[in-house]
Design a protein that fits this description.
By secondary structure, this protein is an alpha+beta fold. It has four domains: 45 residues; 61 residues, Arc Repressor Mutant, subunit A (Orthogonal Bundle), CATH 1.10.10; 40 residues, no CATH class; 50 residues, Arc Repressor Mutant, subunit A. 62% of the residues lie in helices and 13% in strands. It has a four-stranded antiparallel beta sheet. A hairpin with a 2-residue loop joins strand 1 and strand 2. The N and C termini lie far apart (89 Å). The mean pLDDT is 92.
Length: 204
């Protein structure tokens, strides 16, 4: 057992308290946790007890930060985890917060992927969206499932091609540039070929 020899208000953070055991700094807790467990100078406490209390306090803080993050814009599981990790939280705390968010259905990678595709399917091809979703940590299985539900993007590729070729000369060089442009947008060859043929027929 150790003795709590001091409890100090953290500098610049009035809601945080520095806990000292046997005259040595031990940890930092929010004031609510200190009040909840009635921690006070002179109290005897084991290191395991303090570690458990600290985890509960930090888990609560991590969860609040995660909720604040997703309240602004939807995030994937990986994005929330990485955000908390960058804030200095231990992996087990990041995982705890993320699992809690999933349990409450605050984050759902499948729903995120569907919303993303609905939002960007008029701008990007499947390959681009697949890459972007993978970057955000969405599983390959979910990405594949969501993209399979997407209708043909021929019309989208054609519309983008029309805008790209507006006021440009119908030359082979510009056709090649158009193909590269559509490819950079993530469209597959079928969509690119359809768009290119449409532009050429328009010229005829």
């Amino acid at each position: 057992m150790s003795e709590i020899t001091d409890i100090k208000i953290a500098k610049g953070k009035k809601s945080r308290r520095h806990i000292y055991l046997d005259n040595n700094y031990a940890c930092s807790l929010d004031e609510f946790t200190v009040f909840k467990y009635k921690l006070k100078v002179g109290q005897q406490i084991s290191l395991q007890q303090l570690e458990d209390i600290t985890f509960e306090s930090e888990a609560s803080t991590a969860f609040e930060k995660a909720v604040d993050l997703i309240s602004k814009t939807p995030k994937t599981r990986k994005q929330v985890y990485d955000y908390l990790k960058e804030k200095g939280y231990l992996p087990k705390l990041c995982e705890s917060a993320v699992n809690k968010l999933i349990e409450y259905r605050y984050i759902d990678d499948e729903q995120y992927a569907r919303s993303y595709v609905n939002c960007y399917s008029q701008k990007y091809g499947k390959k681009k969206m697949e890459f972007m979703l993978a970057q955000r940590g969405v599983s390959h299985q979910i990405i594949e499932q969501v993209l399979l539900e997407l209708d043909s993007q021929n019309d989208v590729a054609i519309e983008i091609a029309i805008k790209y070729m507006n006021k440009k000369e119908k030359t082979q060089q510009n056709y090649d540039k158009l193909c590269r442009y559509l490819a950079s947008k993530g469209f597959g060859w079928d969509d690119i070929s359809t768009a290119l043929n449409y532009i050429k027929k328009e010229q005829e």
